[in-house]
Amino acid sequence: MEKRVMTDGKRRKGLVAVAAVLGGVLTLAACGGDGGGDDAKNDGHKSQSQVDEAAAKDASDAHIKITPKAGATNAGINSDTKVTVSEGKLTSVTMTSAATGNTVAGTISPDKTSWKPSGQLERATQYKIRASAEDSKGRKATENSSFTTVSPSNSFIGNFTPEDGSTVGVGMPVSIRFDKAVTNKKDVESHIKVTSSSGQQVVGHWFGGDRLDLRPKDYWKAGSTVSLKLDLDGVEASPGVKGVQEKTVNFKIGRSQVSTVDAASKEMKVVRDGKLLKTIKISAGSPENTTYNGQMVISEKFKETRMNGATVGFTDDDGKGEYDIKDVPHAMRLSTSGTFIHGNYWGAKSIFGNVNTSHGCVGLSDTKGAGDPNTDGAWFYDNSQVGDVVIVKNSKDKTVQPDNGLNGWNMDWSQWVAGSAVGSA
């Protein structure tokens, strides 16, 4: 029996010894511990504070900064993202989409102190960045971060015309339609610049909260180059809704062509660069459906298109369109509400120059199929471009509204400037 007691006693002492050893291990591994007291020092071990101090002395001087800050939401998709380093040089930067793992291309600057993505980021996407750098002693520093870009519901864009690289007529305004209403018009407009090689002053005019048109006082100078710069990234259109565009668009103004339709004499004079090019017989809107007066800009061209009266309010008692012509030749849009100047093959040739018969459009003699280049309709189509001006006068109708198409020229300059949020300065 005593032998058994002695055995239990030895086992208990053994357990105490093991516990002491484990206690020492646990103490050494704990952050900020004192290293186990005098016993550890006597064994030649450093305290944790001494280890931390030594590590701090050997830490890299390179300091990496990643923007946007970690955890940010609604980050811009153009210029918000950047990695910089001070007291060191970047050695690598990896940016990936958290959802797909796809790598985002980017470029480290020649001096290796900064990095940025090569292109525009996606909206509503979480990205991860890992950056490494070294200081002058070759000591490495690493930084990780993640952020989420602005969502479509919290951002806005402007759809603009004309297109980059296009050549347009002298009447073509810059017209921008925003996909969300803008309440902070002054800030948005101040970040949109339109300049011309002609030196003409350009001023914007707001049509409601979602459209901004910009033009000079008079038509653009023929042969000039116009530049539109959208600097909207991060600009707040309304509370919580920010812009995401940084874009420059350049387009050229072609020759000057202004055509004047006289609804009373039923003819159109085409003037190019100040000289009469051609006089064409026309048929404008009938007395019941007169054509708008005013300066109208060609905004679209269609060699053939369908015209259905039901789409513009001309219906019979059954609700069907009063007309439905599926192959109208050489059609050019003059207003959003449906005013066109186009070829007409279904009317008698005798109406042109003699009778106004249309539902408000300006008709030119043409043939079915748009295949005859010798008709007036084909000639005018071939010799016109988007942005050319067509003026209608002596009609019994009112002047077309400035926002009905690209027709802001029907507003005098003082009215135009009054519609700007930043004025004419």
Automatic annotation (TrEMBL):
Note whether Magnesium occurs among the keywords: no
Which PROSITE patterns does this one have?
LD_TPASE, PROKAR_LIPOPROTEIN
Quote the biased-composition stretches of kind Basic and acidic residues, using this chain's numbering: 131-142
Bias-annotated ranges (Polar residues): 102-117, 143-154
Region entry Disordered: which residue ranges? 102-154
Matches recorded under Gene3D superfamilies: 2.60.40.3710, 2.60.40.3780, L,D-transpeptidase catalytic domain-like
**Matches recorded under SUPFAM superfamilies:** L,D-transpeptidase catalytic domain-like (SSF141523)
The chain positions of domain L,D-TPase catalytic read 257-393
Q: Which domain of life is it from?
A: Bacteria
Annotated pathway, please? Cell wall biogenesis; peptidoglycan biosynthesis
| Keywords assigned by UniProt, alphabetized | Acyltransferase, Cell shape, Cell wall biogenesis/degradation, Peptidoglycan synthesis, Signal, Transferase
Name recorded for this polypeptide: Ig-like domain-containing protein
Whose protein is this, by species?
Streptomyces asiaticus subsp. ignotus
Q: Supply the source organism's classification.
A: Bacteria, Bacillati, Actinomycetota, Actinomycetes, Kitasatosporales
